[in-house]
Amino acid sequence: MLQSVRYSCSQGNLITNPIKRLFAMKRASKSKETSESSKKSKNDSQEVSSDPASASSFSKTTSTTSNSLYSTFQENRISCALDISQFQFKKKRVRILSNVKEVDDCRGPIVYWMSRDMRVQDNWAFLYAQLLALKLELPLVVVFCLVPKFLNATIRHYKFLLGGLEEVAAECENLKIPFQLLMGPAKDRVPQFVEKNGVAAVVCDFAPLRVPMQWVEDVKNNLADTVPLIQVDAHNVVPVWVASDKQEYGARTIRNKINTKLGEFLTEFPPVVEHKYKLKKNLDSVDWKKAYNSLECDMSVDAVPGVNPGYKAACAQLENFCRRIRLFGEKRNDPTVNALSGLSPWFHFGQISVQRCVLAVREYKGKHKESVEAFCEEAIVRRELADNFCYFNKNYDNLKGLHEWAAKTLNDHRKDKRTPCYSLEEFETCHTHDDLWNSAQIQLAKEGKMHGFLRMYWAKKILEWSESPEKALEIAILLNDKYSLDGRDPNGYVGCMWSIGGIHDQGWAERPIFGKIRYMNYQGCKRKFDVKAFVARYGGKVYNKK
């Protein structure tokens, strides 16, 4: 009987021929969905004092350290629903990319092709894949495609990525869900895996950047006509295609569009659970040593000591932030104070859900309203604005993507004298005349991060001291992507485009080199925070160009 049953990906119900309709009704009654949200267990972790003098926002807690949030989150999921089949899944999170819209369960397993969101729990794409598999009584398999090099990624990034994936693989094993690390480009490896294993459907992540979007397009074109390719935005709280249908001008134009939808999308998650439908064949175990040996990336930029990858480490970092959340509202723009969450590396690699972190932080709104609201603005509105820009503007990393006024003003000042004018090598080795800029670059190279306020100053000075706006943007993106753990991210591209090209900003008083692009200077930083203390911490020196 199962061979006659199809699952409609778009409508969420079983499609049968008239003879099998009774069978379908019985199955549908078993999977009756309940309310999507329930009262969450309140996190009673008590605030402790933090050291404002420390600017290191990365927790040194290892992934094996016990932390209460990890357990609390699991309890919250179970109280929400026993599994995804008992949860009212938001179909707006899903879009079907292939021409075929139905899953035929006469085939083999459902495959979740993991890429941007490298976690098991609190992952809408993983949950949707399990929902399909449970409703059709099919096995579930997770695959990840590892390419030997990717843009400017270094061994620092690959170690963080692979370390997180090892944790994913272990959790999948505990849940009786096979995990496969496919070596090579997705356009070849995913269709090959689908054909070899008779896969019924492929569920994939959403990413707005050029290369991963091309991966998805290539896989779609190379899949058999009978295999649906279904995409789920598991990275944003409000799916990018729901938040807006156009490139937004700035935070003020997208904020209300997102905030009015949070009641619908900012919900608790059900758990990914042990999968009861087992794959009949054994798949190859992952050879992690072979994976590392396959890499062809830059090996000169190594991992950041004490910053551990994976979901457990991310939970520890979140718990660390919650203890000092009172500082965020007032001190988040001070690079000498440990006020930021430090979660961006785990957000970038999808090792923890932004939505999960927002739910946790909102528990403190009664005591620290300003801090919580500021965090939600940055974690939701600003991050989703960055995805919006990269999704709707294919020139998100070059000056063709600028607004007309910004492109014109930079061009009008193209021939302005630039003194000094530095090369990429001088920037990268921290050999400028500005000890604050050099200290910020040292922090980036050493710690794999740069304080958010200093990222703006850092990029704007690259514009001021480079031979052209094009060269400035190229250098800023290269250095950010090479050293920052959250490099090659929509937020990084938008940050550089904001600083150098005025994206999501307005015109300001005209001045040399910058034109009407917002200006920042050393004296302004001195008014904001203790520049001497920051420079003393990182040791940036003054180098006078000969």
UniProtKB/TrEMBL annotation:
<dbReference type="Pfam" id="PF00875">
    <property type="entry name" value="DNA_photolyase"/>
</dbReference>
<dbReference type="InterPro" id="IPR032673">
    <property type="entry name" value="DNA_photolyase_2_CS"/>
</dbReference>
<dbReference type="InterPro" id="IPR008148">
    <property type="entry name" value="DNA_photolyase_2"/>
</dbReference>
<dbReference type="GO" id="GO:0003904">
    <property type="term" value="F:deoxyribodipyrimidine photo-lyase activity"/>
</dbReference>
<feature type="domain" description="Photolyase/cryptochrome alpha/beta">
    <location>
        <begin position="108"/>
        <end position="240"/>
    </location>
</feature>
<keyword id="KW-0238">DNA-binding</keyword>
<dbReference type="GO" id="GO:0003677">
    <property type="term" value="F:DNA binding"/>
</dbReference>
<dbReference type="InterPro" id="IPR036155">
    <property type="entry name" value="Crypto/Photolyase_N_sf"/>
</dbReference>
<feature type="region of interest" description="Disordered">
    <location>
        <begin position="26"/>
        <end position="65"/>
    </location>
</feature>
<dbReference type="InterPro" id="IPR006050">
    <property type="entry name" value="DNA_photolyase_N"/>
</dbReference>
<feature type="compositionally biased region" description="Low complexity">
    <location>
        <begin position="46"/>
        <end position="65"/>
    </location>
</feature>
<keyword id="KW-0227">DNA damage</keyword>
<dbReference type="GO" id="GO:0009650">
    <property type="term" value="P:UV protection"/>
</dbReference>
<dbReference type="InterPro" id="IPR014729">
    <property type="entry name" value="Rossmann-like_a/b/a_fold"/>
</dbReference>
<comment type="similarity">
    <text>Belongs to the DNA photolyase class-2 family.</text>
</comment>
<dbReference type="GO" id="GO:0000719">
    <property type="term" value="P:photoreactive repair"/>
</dbReference>
<comment type="function">
    <text>Involved in repair of UV radiation-induced DNA damage. Catalyzes the light-dependent monomerization (300-600 nm) of cyclobutyl pyrimidine dimers (in cis-syn configuration), which are formed between adjacent bases on the same DNA strand upon exposure to ultraviolet radiation.</text>
</comment>
<keyword id="KW-0234">DNA repair</keyword>
<keyword id="KW-0456">Lyase</keyword>
<keyword id="KW-0274">FAD</keyword>
<keyword id="KW-0285">Flavoprotein</keyword>
<protein>
    <recommendedName>
        <fullName>Deoxyribodipyrimidine photo-lyase</fullName>
        <ecNumber>4.1.99.3</ecNumber>
    </recommendedName>
</protein>
<feature type="compositionally biased region" description="Basic and acidic residues">
    <location>
        <begin position="30"/>
        <end position="45"/>
    </location>
</feature>
<dbReference type="InterPro" id="IPR052219">
    <property type="entry name" value="Photolyase_Class-2"/>
</dbReference>
<dbReference type="InterPro" id="IPR036134">
    <property type="entry name" value="Crypto/Photolyase_FAD-like_sf"/>
</dbReference>
